Structure formats: structure tokens, C-alpha cells
Amino acid sequence: MLKFEFKNPTKIRFGKGQIENLAKEIPAKSKIMMLYGGGSIKKNGIYEQIKNALKDFEVIEFGGIPANPEYEILMQALEIIKKENINYLLAVGGGSVIDGTKFLSAAALYSGDNPWDILKKNIRIDKGMPFGTVLTLPATGSEMNSGAVITRAETQEKFGMGGPGLFPEFSILDPQVVRSIPQRQLANGITDAYTHVLEQYMTFPTQAFLQDRFAESILQTLVEIAPRILKDPSDYEAASNFMWCCTMALNGLIQKGVPNDWATHMIGHELTALFGIDHARTLSIIGPNLYNYKFEDKKEKLAQYAERVWNIKDGSIDEKAHEAIKKTEDFFHSLGIKTKLSEYTNDYEGTAEIISNRFTERGWLGLGERRNIKPSDVEEIVKMSY
User: Fold this and answer.
1) Crossing angle of the two packed helices 236-248 and 183-201, in degrees rounded to 10
2) Tens-place pLDDT, residues 281-340
3) What is the 3-state composition of the chain as percent helix, strand, coil, each rounded to the nearest 5?
4) 218: how many CB neighbours lie within 10 A of its CB?
5) How far is CA 98 from CA 213, 292, 306, in A?
6) Sequential DSSP letters for 33-79
7) What are the domain boundaries of the chain?
8) CATH fold of 11-176, please?
9) Are 248 and 222 spatial neighbours (Cβ–Cβ below 8 Å)?
10) Whole-prediction pTM value?
């Protein structure tokens, strides 16, 4: 097991009716900006619950944060934050709203001239404006980590950011919200969480036995509850396990003591930036092909994954590893997720070269757990994904 440090300061309130405790988590006399997305919270009762809980606070609302949090829209929110002297942020939504709020938390205290530099230069954020979250869409784990990803449509770019100053102070997780989530977003959430685990697990053995078991248990649980969630989102038992899996998949715990990959995410972000494809679906496009391309590096963990998650006991290491990749792709298909770029766009020719060139221009010369995925390798992986 590799050496590590671990600290996660986010307080979780989990279960039915926890929104009514919202006011207990925000300092008295805070001036709050409440951020949300397309307005679904006004249809499913969450908006009313939050307004009731915050009746003694001054709250300014900012809605319309899109599925891939857009820099220019967030800059409009930042202008209001500064003009109105906001001192507390509340994200009400899924990963996109929470990620957008993290950017605003950083940008509100940023002393530089251009907030885009936070993303472009990957500036570590040690202190941000305090914020909390009310999770309405399980998927990204952003409610209990300090990372975010922001899109800029103008330049067709998508960059990550983070730092210890960007942990939410608290997150409220009420699984009842799952019952109003559309099927497409449920499938995306399952795929996103599943791939988050794989990015931290599908590398090479480091004798981190407990970490492997943690990761495998999340994968097994997602496989088990996926059909139930898709069939009946109001199934509270399934919804509870789904929501907690998504949080545990990326709250920092399972990545400690083990190597991490994240190449699938880095490449997938480019597909979203270029074509607007849902983040989770870009992961399903790239992931299996990356595993095939880097098969020799990953086959031991692939075989372990085959045995423990998919109960594949027969065959050589290579045979079990190949079957595990197929099972992964089959699982995505069972959720209604397509796994080829050509199934999302007819305009895919040349995409591999564009992404490879972008990585070269940014100096990203080695992705993956071994830092041996070069831009030329990225080009081949993307071509395999057509």
C-alpha cells in the first residue's frame, strides 16, 4: 500500500427529511446565494422545502446553471456575488451545480485579474467562500470532495480544478429526490459513479487489500441496484444505496494508498467539450477501449475485477481480463448507454487528432497511473472508440 494523507471535512446529513435541518448548518446572518440548474427543484418540492428552511436568511437566487457548468454563466453569478456582498453559497442540484459553486467559491476570493486562470493554470485553492450543498442528482460525488470541472463553450475547453479550500462544509442527501430523476440521468449517474471507482481501482496491484474491497463493494452494489433504480426510482432502499455509492465513489477514501488513473476522464472531457456529449457517456465510450489498449498494464487488476465483481472464475489471467472488459461494456449497454463515438455524432473523423494535439499543446505528456499514455496513445484510444 502506498503512503497517503486523508482528511475529509464535509459533514453529511443523510436520509428522509434532512432538508428541514438546513438552517442549522449555515451561520446566522449569512447572506446566501442559492444556485440551481434548470428549475426541476420547483417541480419536485425541493425548492419549497429549502425556502421554508431558510426563511430567516436573506437569500438571492441564481438559476440556470447548465449540465456542463459554463464559465460565462458562472461569471454572471460572480458579478452578483460581489455586487451584493454574498458571504455564503448554497448549491442545490447535482454535480454540475455543485462544481459551478466550487468555481464561484474560489473565484469570489481570487485576487488575480482573470478567474479563468484558476482553471487554465490549475491553481490550487486553499481557501474559498464557504458553501454547502443539497444533492438532487446522485452521480459525481462532488458533494463530498474538493474537485470540480468547468466548461467554456467559447473555446471548446473543459478543465478541472480543486484544492482543500473547496470541500463543502456540509451536504444534505435525501434519497427521496431520486424518484423524480429522468431515466437518462439515472443511467448517467450509475455510469459516472461506476467509472469513478474504476479510475481508482483499475490500475495495478499494490497489496492494498482493504481499498480493493472497498472499491469492489461499490461496484457490486451498483450492479445489484441498477435494475431496481431504473425500474422504480421511488424504491427508497435502492435509491439510498445508489446515492451513497455515488458519494463514496469519489469522496477520497478509495483512492488513498493506491495508484490512480483518470485518463478516461481526461479524454472524455474533450469529447464533451467538442460535441456536448453527456460526461458519463464519454466515459463509457473511452473506458473499455483504454483498458484494451493498455491491457498488459492492467490485466492483473482486470482479472481480479472479473473474479470478484463478475464471478468469472475460469480461464487464464488474460482470458478473465478480456471477459471483464466485455462485461463492463455489457453493463453500460444494460443501462441504455451507447459506447461508440459514432453513435453520438456523424462528425467524428479527425477527433482523435484534435484531442491528441490539444494534449500536446498543454504539455500533458503522460496520462494514466504509470504516466505512460502519450498524446499519440490518446489518438489511438480515441480511434478505437469510433
Assistant:
1) 40
2) 999 999 999 999 999 999 999 999 999 999 999 999 999 999 999 999 999 999 999 999
3) 55, 10, 35
4) 27
5) 29, 33, 34
6) EEE-SSSGGGTSSHHHHHHHHTTTSEEEEE----SS-BHHHHHHHHH
7) 11-176, 182-384
8) Rossmann fold (3.40.50)
9) no
10) 0.95
Confidence of residue 38 (pLDDT cuts 50, 70, 90): confident
Cell (9 digits) for 352: 482523435
Can you give the length of the chain in residues?
386
Distances (CA, A) of 266 to 110, 224, 279, 299: 25, 28, 11, 21
Q: Does domain 182-384 match CATH 1.10.3210.10?
A: no
Grid coordinates belonging to 354: 484534435
Residue 167 has pLDDT above 90, yes or no: yes
Rounded CA gap, 124 and 98, in Å? 18
Q: Give the Å distances, CA to CA, from 74 to 68, 115, 252.
A: 11, 11, 26
